[in-house]
Specification:
homodimer, mainly alpha, Multidrug-efflux Transporter Regulator, Chain: A, Domain 2, two-stranded antiparallel sheet, elongated, DNA-binding
DNA sequence: TCCGCACTTGACGTTTACGTCAACGTAACA
DNA sequence: TGTTACGTTGACGTAAACGTCAAGTGCGGA
């Protein structure tokens, strides 16, 4: 039973709410490379995983070019030690980028929180003033 | 002494490492509206603050259109209570977006960390095997 | 007064990330 | 055996975010 689950282009486009065009575009850019059954694309579990990574990368604001460079970091490979070292180095670079993005995100969140509290405080004052006017 | 600090287009482009073209583009899109001294743009402290927010928004992956909608949330305004309520509602929406982005970012970080540990583990095994071969 | 340099406004070009046809193949189903 | 649905490959279109000229304006210094 090596009946591994596979997906048509429509399956994936429905599940992830993207168009088939998008999937073909990602393939064209070297982000995906599904098998073919005749002329038709047939995606497997690995393709699906990569697609999920791609879409999350996009939501985090990375370009397809950056994402393509990083996708391999998630492929467990059977390379040599030297390859593994380079992989680790690249991973550390990406980790740094992610951490600094988290820093900026945290700052943005804190600042917005402060702004909101300020407006809330002002609203409370107005409420109290209205009460006092009774 | 209301000598508030101001900046030329070049000042800001150098400080934030963007081109003057970019600053004019942002103005065209309604993100900035510096004063004019004759025909020249003259940016003040508030403009500079907005620019910093714009650039951070970009680094976090938001479009200029989104950023424009959110910039006003950071302007302390002298509006009515109804205005303040709408402001708070909009702020909460944005806060939700930021929090869920942080969630995705954290997941990405955790997954990459796991991958890295896996590769490190493999490297250690190789090291031990080499030692044992002595 | 003239030079040079920074600034200005168009206008068109470019890259990224797809959308949108057109024209065709194929596979299942009544 | 049609026809209906889904799939394919081009080819061209488009929105966002600028880059890159071109041609003119204004101003402080020799």
């Amino acid at each position: 039973m090596s009946e591994s689950k596979t997906y048509s282009i429509r399956d994936l486009s429905l599940e992830y709410d993207i168009t088939p065009r998008t999937l073909r575009f990602y393939e064209d850019k070297g982000l995906l490379s599904p098998l073919r059954r005749g002329t038709q694309r047939i995606y497997d579990r690995r393709d699906k995983g990569r697609l999920a990574l791609i879409l999350r990368g996009k939501r985090l604001g990375f370009s397809l070019a950056e994402i393509r460079n990083w996708l391999d970091l998630y492929d467990v490979r059977d390379g040599q030690v030297a390859q593994a070292r380079m992989l680790l180095d690249a991973s550390e670079d990406r980790m740094q980028a992610l951490l600094s993005q988290r820093e900026e995100l945290n700052q943005t969140i804190e600042e917005l929180k402060a702004q909101m509290q300020q407006v809330e405080g002002w609203l409370d004052e107005q409420g109290l003033a209205a009460e006092a006017a009774d």
